[in-house]
Write a structure and sequence with these properties.
Helices cover 67% and strands 2% of the residues. It is mostly helical. The chain has one domain. Helix 6 runs parallel beside helix 8.
Length: 363
């Protein structure tokens, strides 16, 4: 537990002290956010706010994890494990895709960066590497970081996917989650605050798994996962990094995380769900992100369907994603953010309740 706290404290300090340095550097370089002309008009005043702040979140998460493992090594423990390294690889890899997207927006002075094909292609390459590597590196019990079974709060033995099926599932989960966080990152601090709550849940889940391993004598509600302590260290580092960044990203934001941060945070959530065997539970824990994504899908689908049928496209919401609907309805930005944080907290609490209920039921 002390090691997890160390990772969180180091990451928090790195994020809260390092983010203003990033803000100053990006201001000097003119790395300012471009705003959609078809978005809420109140957002136009945010044009020029430094973006790509996700760099601070990623670096802080990595530093927190590394320092925690240095502490373990100094006290006679081993070095980083496959699970932690793969999670950080996924986070940094998707963050790099997001960085390229943000950089193109800045260089070309437009609100659209990478073309959709290039963006999804980058996500595909990173996820393929993660998924294939996660099925290797067996420990002494033969457990790999990922499993070829579908999981809820643990592997569902009756639902085997095989290697190909798992890779496809991993891509769907990573792509969906990273893009869901990206869609949610439309108001100051909204995505960072909601992400912190989800990472808090994964910290507790991984710690509970660490304290209740199956080992060679499975009993009660034990968990067959590889390196749960590493997963907890990464999750705690990401949690603290989000909190530190939120200090500067809260309304009115001094910096935006950009696609650099949102793709990295969403990808790491998906990776944690995969290595902790909670793939289906992620839809509950990230309920806010799921709702925002569904609102965009419904809006687009309904508009296209009604345009084909009547010649005039109709909309369900004033604007998608969902938070913009309430903005155009007259809600203050800070009101939307706080209420959406409450919804995110409720979703996380429900997800943790489901996880712990299963643990208690199995004794």
């Amino acid at each position: 537990m002390k090691t997890i706290l160390l990772a969180a404290v180091v990451s928090l300090l790195c994020s809260i002290l390092g983010t203003p340095l990033v803000v100053a550097y990006f201001r000097r370089r003119g790395f300012g956010q471009e705003i959609r002309n078809d978005g809420p008009q109140t957002h136009l005043v945010k044009r020029g706010t430094p973006t790509m702040g996700g760099v601070a979140i990623i670096v802080s998460t990595v530093v927190g994890y590394v320092v925690a493992h240095l502490s373990i090594w100094i006290n006679g423990g081993g070095g980083p494990n496959a699970t932690g390294v793969l999670l950080l690889f996924l986070m940094v890899g998707l963050g790099t895709v997001g960085f390229l997207d943000d950089f193109i927006k800045i260089r070309k002075q437009r609100s659209l960066g990478l073309r959709a094909r290039a963006k999804f292609g980058g996500q595909l390459l990173v996820t393929l590497a993660f998924a294939l590597l996660a099925l290797r590196f067996r420990n002494r019990l033969g457990i790999t970081p990922a499993s070829t079974h579908l999981s809820y709060v643990r592997d569902i033995a009756a639902v085997g996917l095989g290697t190909v099926g798992f890779v496809v599932l991993a891509y769907l989960i990573v792509s969906a989650t990273s893009n869901a966080v990206n869609l949610t990152d439309g108001l100051d601090g909204l995505a960072a605050g909601a992400s912190a709550m989800v990472y808090g849940a994964f910290t507790l889940i991984a710690f509970l798994q660490y304290r209740n391993p199956c080992g060679q004598n499975p009993i009660g509600g034990c968990y067959s996962v590889r390196d749960p302590l590493d997963a907890a260290l990464v999750a705690a580092s990401a949690l603290a990094a989000c909190f530190g960044f939120l200090w500067w990203n809260a309304s009115p934001a001094q910096i935006f995380m950009g696609d650099t941060g949102s793709l990295a945070l969403g990808g790491l959530m998906a990776g944690l769900a995969i290595v902790t065997r909670t793939e289906l539970l992620l839809a509950v824990l990230g309920g806010l992100f799921a709702a925002v994504t569904v609102s965009s899908i419904l809006q687009t689908g309904w508009f296209k369907a009604t345009r084909i049928r009547t010649g005039t496209g109709r909309r369900i919401f004033r604007m998608a994603p969902l938070h913009h609907h309430f903005e155009l309805g007259g809600w203050e930005e800070i009101t939307i953010i706080v209420r959406f944080w409450i919804l995110a907290g409720i979703a996380v609490a429900l997800g943790m309740g489901l996880f712990y209920a299963d643990f208690i039921a199995r004794g």
